[in-house]
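[job 0412] stage=complex_fold ligand=thiamine diphosphate status=START
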Amino acid sequence: MKKLSFAEAVESCLMQKMAEDHSVFIMGEDVQMMRLNILARFGKNRVINTPISEAAFTGAAIAAAMSGLRPVVEVMLVDFIGVAADSFLNNASKLFDFSGGKWNAPVVYRCACGGGYGDGGQHEQSLWGWLAHIPGISVVVPSNPIDAGGLLYAAIEHDHPVFFLEHKLLAQNWLEYMGIGGRSTVQFDVPEDGAWGEVPKKWTPIPLGKLNVVREGKDITLISVGVGVHRCVEAASKLEEVSISAEILDLRSISPLDIENILQSVRKTGAVIIVDEDYKEFGLSGEIAAILAENQIEFKYGRVCTEKTIPFNRESEDETLPNVARIIHMVKKVVS
Amino acid sequence: MKKKDKKIDIAFYSKMYQLMYRSRKFEEIVMQLWHEGTIFGEMHMSVGEEAIHASIIKNLEDGDAIAVDHRGTAPFFMRGIDPISLLLEFIGHKDGLCSGQGGHMHLFSREHNMTSSGIVGATGSTAMGFALSHKYKNNKNIAVALFGEGAINQGMLLESFNMTSALELPVLFVCKDNNWAITTQSDSVTGGVLLDRAQGFGIAGEKINGLDFQESFSRIGYAIKTIRKTGKPYFIHATCVHREGHFLGDQLIALHRTTGKILGDLVGSLTKSLFKLKGGLVGERGESLGHILKIMTSSKHQLKSSVDPLVIAKKMLKNQGADVLSVEKKADQEIDQILKQTLQIIQGGNQL
Ligand SMILES: Cc1ncc(C[n+]2csc(CCOP(=O)(O)OP(=O)(O)O)c2C)c(N)n1
Ligand SMILES: [Mg+2]
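[job 0412] stage=complex_fold status=DONE, emitting structure tokens
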């Protein structure tokens, strides 16, 4: 084991995979300078700089994948996928079904996501629920370095389209780039255990669709992904002081969703709170409630989500994104 | 087009210079507040684009619309939007232009028909929509779309080229070309000649030196007159530089300003990757290194004073005997005052 940052873990996994499999290449805006180490080692043919033409290159990656390559396409921030919606909405996601299961596209879309560093509502969205809404694509959201590497490894090996979302408060290179800019005058609430961690010397895949029980508890289940998991951990240790024992599930992948283990936990605790940095309406938090209801489980329920456009003002931004105080407040409301 | 030797209207061009200079000084405050951490997030400057913006603004009339990209400070400031409300917006204050909700990349002024978007390429369709409305209402107003040369490879912008041409809509497309899109040299990912693109869609256009305020003013003035007369779009391809790089804190600029540290860290990590087993051939690795060095060295020219539109303008005015210093002094006082008042408001503690 060695200690790496989240960003280093992703990069080291990607390099290992590129060394093992010549069909893996990366493509996207600025990738040559943003991924200098990969460029230095693998050369320009496997690190392809694109123009700012997301609709074109995210779509092209699908056909490249259909003909045997394994593209890892970077769409800087997930917010920008908006201009390329056709690629995942009507192209990548439909191929396997339309072809009667005879043709598939193993493409990975790698995007930074999430807020908490003052970049406003066009650069800080999460959007995983929006993506996972569409059948035919997987969406993974790692919360720490070891999961980031393992899930990326699995995503590249997966035979169908996968969105791999890296939260900017965890991926230190993105935070430095978008939020810090070399300054020592700004500080952000970066979860230490998410941004840094032990990773294996050699990467192996972590299967998509398997959640991680971060903490066991008996009174309530907290379900989250990405930075939200760390907010839950902080909330849970405070709740312990008032004798509330919280179980925390890190979904790791939104789609496929580990329904089995969600059911098992909520059956045990009888209460659940979804902590989702994505929008509240028509998303992950409602989906989980529906699944629990469909399975005839009796449960108390609450959710802590982003409920509006993320404001630029830092204090309102912190209020808008799920935070520890909101989680604690919701837990107390639900269990009382 | 350049008539350097001809006598020019000193009073008029002094006013232009004043506008450019005020904008530059205003952005220097922005830089200061950003470095102090009072402004959060990213900060894209208009520094180096002043001649282009002043030329547009000086040729616009009330009711004309402007769709601005992520470099909104100069166009909003020059159009006459309260500078204190702009600064407060950049800080995220409730009394900011957009109540602290948008920040510098998402500025909107309904009274001025001015919008922004941080989504590259979005300004084409926005300007087209304003133009459509102008035409619908049968007024003589136009709409301006501001964007970089990087944005010109974005589908929605090219779609607006076609549609404004086919529907005959009064849009001025202004491509501010610094040949950089963050760390990418745009000519390495752009096919053909930009002017040919516009002309291919049936849009008249020309390439101008956007660092030169006289040339910019006269050519952009001509473009706007033509649009008002014909009701059809026009394309201006204006070269410029970004003296602060892509955004404040840009490593490619910091590299040339600070010595050692950044380069040292980089070389250390690159050397490790270069010599890792398994990967590209030796030749490919060498080529990568060459590419990285080229990017690092070619960013330097933006810092030269010979490509600063203010330096160029000032030199020209001085040669013509204009009293540039008193213009500057007055502007310095004004901007000082803006900063003082803004700080008072913030320290007054009525932040959100
Ligand atoms: C759709 C979209 N893709 C990518 C980005 C990230 N991005 C922000 S600015 C920029 C470069 C823009 O280059 P250019 O249009 O030349 O403008 P400049 O920054 O040089 O003024 C990029 C890629 C974005 N904001 N929106
Ligand atoms: Mg540019």
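Chain A has two domains: 2-199, 212-335.
[job 0412] exit 0
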